[in-house]
């Protein structure tokens, strides 16, 4: 019974898909698809000039789709940044560009479980 009670919050979280659940719990049943949200970043001057990276508009953007695109471009296991429907791939970004999470207030079209930036801001993820 104690094991079930310990699992109950995870089950409720998965079934309700609430934003109060951490993203790592939402993906607990697919460990290969675990996503770590790194934060919200000021979009201008976010990337380090040594590697300009690549970007593209992704229909119904979400971290998994962005990661797939980045991996195909040689940026596997790197940070991915989402700003609305645009996916940015880069090996590094400026940590001083990190801002309050409330600035990234736009749900991703591909999954309401994740944020895709906001006006002048981008959401960062690591897969």
Automatic annotation (TrEMBL):
The lineage of its organism: Eukaryota, Metazoa, Spiralia, Lophotrochozoa, Platyhelminthes. PROSITE patterns: WSC. Pfam families: WSC. Residues 34-127 form the WSC domain. Residues 1-20 form the signal peptide. Keywords: Signal. This is WSC domain-containing protein. It comes from Macrostomum lignano. The keyword Transferase does not apply.
